Amino acid sequence: MYSLLLAVIYLIFISLGLPDSLLGSGWPTMQVAFGVPSSYAGYVSMSISFMTIISALLSPRMIRHFHTKWIVIVSIFLTIMGLIGFSISTSYLMLFIFVIPYGLGAGAIDASVNHYVANNYSGSVMNFLHCFYGVGAVISPNIMALALSQARWNEGYRWTAYIQIGILIVCIISLPLWKRNESGAEGETEAGAGIREAIKVPGVILTLIAFFAYCSGEATCFLWTSSYFAGVKEELSEGMIASFGSLIFGGLMLGRLISGFVSNRLGDRLLIRIGIAVELAGILMVMLPIKNWVPAAIGFVIIGTGMGPVYPAIQHMAPENFGKRYSAAVIGLQMASAYVGSTFMPMVFGNLQQHIGIGIMPFYLLIFAVLNISMLERTYVVLKSRKA
To answer: Where are the alpha helices (DSSP H) in 121-203?
Structure first.
């Protein structure tokens, strides 16, 4: 039962990763089809993230009132609606109708399953969980690349929706597997603190800023990596440019896979420090003034590898740092803060690159990597003084 439930949870995170990289990999072609500037991808991404913020902020209340399994079922159904909606969109404005289910589904899954795993499983499981998010996020740019070579961008969304339908069926069949752990988790969340109470706990706001910084850099990579290669590197085909959207996700998957094997031994804090050091090395590699696309491609994989352990480690630390009473609310706040970064910072970058040039991307990423580690280190100091 334990192993089967864990397999289903991993599959759920594959489904969470599938929609996230489609817009970035398909946008160079979509913008031409819709006849809009390249920066307009930021408005779509911002709208998706805004809906995700809403569902993340509502997640502590949903966790208190509903089983995690039902939150997952409804959320996957919403993302399927969003994907199919994107696939039938014939104009840029139509996309904004379907960002609503697209974003609402993602935030609810992310917060509820992260809380469930943080309270019931080890740091190793948490890293493997987010590794499977990377599996989904690596698959979908390649689906989009295949769609662009064989059909149109619309099919990339439609084919991804079909995969999500298959995952939804598996989740429905597996509903009885959740009974064993769900009762224990419910008892903890019913007595849990709310958002207003949790935000006053020392160190929480610092982790929110760190999460904002992390997801600002991550989401910028998700959305603009393909466009970076289209704008900076020459003589690349549309399909090849679209496939570059999977570089950051491949790195994330690799980083989380490695972390899954070593996290219980190294601990969350050391993993984060090592991860951000690797991320900085990748950013410096992308900065190299070399015309060939290979060093930059390797650099983005290294950036993703470094980012890999940061997100799951911060969330896994929530019950330990702030107590189980606050963990659901803290994780919900972290998700909301993360998606504030995902909402606004790719859009800000879109406008900057339109005026300055997309070559500024690695410098933009550097700012958020430094902000991320500085806020986390400050958090550790606050927590230490609080315990003392």
So the answer is: 123-150, 153-173, 179-190, 195-198
Q: How far is CA 353 from CA 12, 64, 231, in A?
A: 35, 43, 10
Q: What would the pLDDT profile of 9-52 be if each residue is shown by its tens digit?
A: 888 888 888 887 788 778 888 888 888 887 788 788 878 878 88
Report how far residue 49's alpha carbon sits from residue 30's, in angstroms, rounded to the nearest whole number. Answer: 19
Rg of the chain over Cα atoms, rounded to whole angstroms, equals: 20
Residue partners of 84: CB distance under 8 A and separation at least 6 = 98, 157, 158, 161
pTM, full prediction:
0.73
At 81, the amino acid letter reads M
Using alpha carbons only, what angle is made at residue 131 by residues 343 and 340, rounded to the nearest 5 degrees?
15
Full set of structural domains in the chain with CATH: 2-387 (1.20.1250.20)
Among residues 270, 354, 279, which one has the least CA distance to residue 313?
A: 270
* Residue 343 neighbours by CB under 8 Å, 6+ apart: 45, 46, 49, 50, 52, 53
d(CA 104, CA 100): 6
Residue type, 301: V
- Tell me which residue has tokens 């399927």: 80
As a whole number of angstroms, the distance between CA 163 and CA 149 comes to: 19
Task: Please state, in angstroms and as integers, the Cα–Cα distance from residue 304 to each residue in 177, 254, 318, following that order.
Answer: 33, 8, 23
- What distance in Å separates the CA atoms of residue 169 and residue 192, rounded to the nearest whole number? 31
106 close to 52: Cβ distance less than 8 angstroms: yes
Contact call for residues 211 and 334 (beta carbons, < 8 A): yes
State the distance between the two ends of the chain, measured CA to CA, in whole angstroms. 41
- Three-point CA angle 349, 355, 357, nearest 5°: 70
Q: Other C-beta atoms within 10 Å of 233: how many?
A: 18
* pLDDT tens string 217-269: 988 988 788 888 888 876 777 777 877 877 887 888 888 888 888 887 888 88
Q: What's the pLDDT at 213?
A: 94
The CA distance from 91 to 368, in Å, is 33
> CB within 8 A of 361, min separation 6: which ones?
220, 224, 228, 286, 349, 353
